[in-house]
Amino acid sequence: xxxxxxxxxxxxxxxxxxxxxxxxxxxxxxxxxxxxxxxxxxxxxxxxxxxxxxxxxxxxxxxxxxxxxxxxxxxxxxxxxxxxxxxxxxxxxxxxxxxxxxxxxxxxxxxxxxxxxxxxxxxxxxxxxxxxxxxxxxxxxxxxxxxxxxxxxxxxxxxxxxxxxxxxxxxxxxxxxxxxxxxxxxxxxxxxxxxxxxxxxxxxxxxxxxxx
Length: 212
Description:
Elements: H1 2-40, E1 54-61, E2 70-71, E3 77-78, E4 87-93, H2 99-113, E5 122-128, H3 136-141, E6 146-150, H4 152-159, H5 169-173, E7 176-179, E8 184-189, H6 195-208
Parallel strand pairs: 4-5, 5-6
Antiparallel strand pairs: 1-8, 2-3, 2-6, 4-7, 7-8
């Protein structure tokens, strides 16, 4: 009888000594398991998708110079491959740059400036859709913006994925777009986007990206 009692006591003590180890293992592995579950089930993440812009699906690569020939303001050809390696904030509009255009360029400029130490990883591009003269006040206000003239129909095929002749010109002129350093058009923002939300998107991309 005493022998049985001793064996039972030893079994209980052994079980008790294992539980702290099991508890430690559970505490250590729980965050990893939770991360995997959240990653493969985005619907479980708080608020679902956290990006403000709309993802371009499928992504479209920067066109070749034959697909979209562009020139600088002084009429010199510009190689779009020179834009690779940077995050690009893009807008398109007429050279006269009405108020809606100026607002986009203002958002691009301020978003770029707010990247802080990452400012050199980002460039802002304005595709000008006609041959008119850009007002001096616009040139001065948005110095540092890469200004390129482009055929609106060819530009539309890249940015909106459709033919301008069959679409709405505002679908080309209203949004702001983002291109990743690999040259992929990957995000579109609505007309009059909320600047703080756009900055937050770009900030997260810059923080998490190993490229550009």
